[in-house]
């Protein structure tokens, strides 16, 4: 794919796609997942190569992209900071120019969004955000698909975000703006979401609650994340103290709708951001969420590389 080609699109944050493109992707995900479950071969990406660059640890993102790409007939190159010149200060722009001449698609997990954007600006091929300090759009894509699978649709619903105003929170807020639902946000003081950093047009898609119980009231989905994200480990002790009341427990779930779902992008720390009885309880759909990473990303890779099918 060359710069200027019709299909050259990046996926760097949730707002990079429009509502009708999400509707298309969710329908493609359903078809691709059904084929996978029926052991039907579907290999539209034969001879295509995905480079995956990890500057932070991963289990789900690596397995879901790698397995998904192989299942679609393609292949994968896996790079980390430690085993490539990325860790020896080769400029990100040069890395982008070189890597994107040899592969068809790049997935990057890194620190600052600006670094991902610099890579994308110098890439000949589509670039996907596999998590940055600011955003984690592929996870929210999977989470919303999971909600739709269980509940039919997310427009008009209420999602309670309990915890850090982090990359996941920002991506949920962008999704709410595009897909027409509301986020009730409750974070400890000092860890609030910043609408400018989240890239929101306005504040209409969310409401802030001091008390996490109040945020959960009437919610159709309660979701949380680790208290300390990757890259913020030095703040661990201060965060443990600040977040002590932001543990999603049975009482918070009881404040939500009777049929509310619980989600967590994982990895989880039982007894910190979520009680074991919640994450391991009947309202939790965390394993579906994790599996759906692979299905939604297969639809996303198909869309970025081939465009619309049919
Ligand atoms: N949820 C998620 O992105 O998990 P990994 O860090 O294991 O990739
Ligand atoms: N907010 C977490 C998500 C991990 C998948 C982090 O950035 O570490």
Describe the overall structure.
This protein has helices at 19-37, 60-71, 92-102, 113-121, 137-151, 167-179, 195-198, 212-216, 236-242, 250-255, 276-279, 286-306; strands spanning 49-54, 75-80, 105-109, 127-129, 158-162, 182-186, 206-208, 221-224, 261-264. A 5-stranded parallel beta sheet has the order 7-6-5-8-9. Strands 2-1-3-4 form a 4-stranded parallel beta sheet, with helices on both faces. It has 2 domains: 14-136 and 293-306, Aspartate/ornithine carbamoyltransferase (Rossmann fold, 3-Layer(aba) Sandwich), CATH 3.40.50.1370; 139-289, Rossmann fold (3-Layer(aba) Sandwich). Strand 1, helix 2 and strand 2 (75-80) form a beta-alpha-beta unit. The longest helix is centred in the last third of the chain and has 21 residues, at 286-306. The two termini are 21 Å apart. The protein is built from 12 helices and 9 strands. Helix 2 packs across helix 12 and helix 5 (137-151) packs across helix 12 (286-306). The model has no long low-confidence stretch (mean pLDDT 97). Helix content is 41%, strand content 13%. By secondary structure, the chain is an alpha/beta fold. The site of norvaline has 10 residues, from helix 6.
């Amino acid at each position: 794919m060359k710069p200027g080609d019709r299909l050259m699109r990046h996926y760097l944050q949730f707002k990079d796609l429009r509502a009708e493109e999400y509707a298309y992707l969710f329908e493609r995900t359903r078809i691709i997942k059904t084929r996978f479950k029926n052991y039907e071969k579907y290999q539209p990406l034969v001879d295509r190569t995905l480079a995956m660059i990890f500057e932070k640890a991963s289990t789900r993102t690596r397995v879901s992209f790698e397995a998904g790409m192989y299942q679609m007939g393609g292949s994968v190159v896996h790079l980390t900071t430690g085993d490539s010149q990325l860790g020896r200060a080769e400029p990100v722009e040069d890395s982008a120019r070189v890597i994107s001449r040899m592969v068809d698609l790049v997935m990057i997990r890194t620190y600052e969004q600006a670094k991902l954007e610099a890579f994308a600006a110098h890439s000949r091929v589509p670039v996907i955000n596999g998590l940055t300090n600011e955003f984690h759009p592929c996870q929210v894509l999977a989470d919303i698909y999971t909600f739709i699978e269980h509940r039919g649709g997310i427009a008009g619903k209420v999602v309670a975000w309990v915890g850090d105003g982090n990359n996941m929170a920002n991506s949920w807020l962008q999704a709410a703006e595009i897909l027409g639902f509301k986020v009730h946000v409750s974070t400890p003081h000092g860890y609030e979401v910043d609408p400018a950093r989240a890239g929101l047009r306005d504040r209409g898609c969310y409401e802030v609650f001091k008390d996490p119980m109040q945020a959960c009231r009437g919610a159709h989905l309660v979701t949380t994340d680790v208290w300390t994200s990757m890259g913020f480990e030095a703040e661990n002790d201060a965060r443990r103290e600040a977040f002590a009341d932001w543990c999603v427990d049975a009482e918070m779930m009881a404040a939500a709708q009777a049929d509310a779902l619980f989600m967590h992008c994982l990895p989880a720390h039982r007894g910190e951001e979520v009680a074991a009885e919640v994450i391991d309880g009947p309202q939790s759909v965390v394993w579906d969420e994790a599996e759906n990473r692979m299905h939604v990303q297969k639809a996303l890779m198909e869309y970025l590389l081939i465009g619309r099918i049919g």
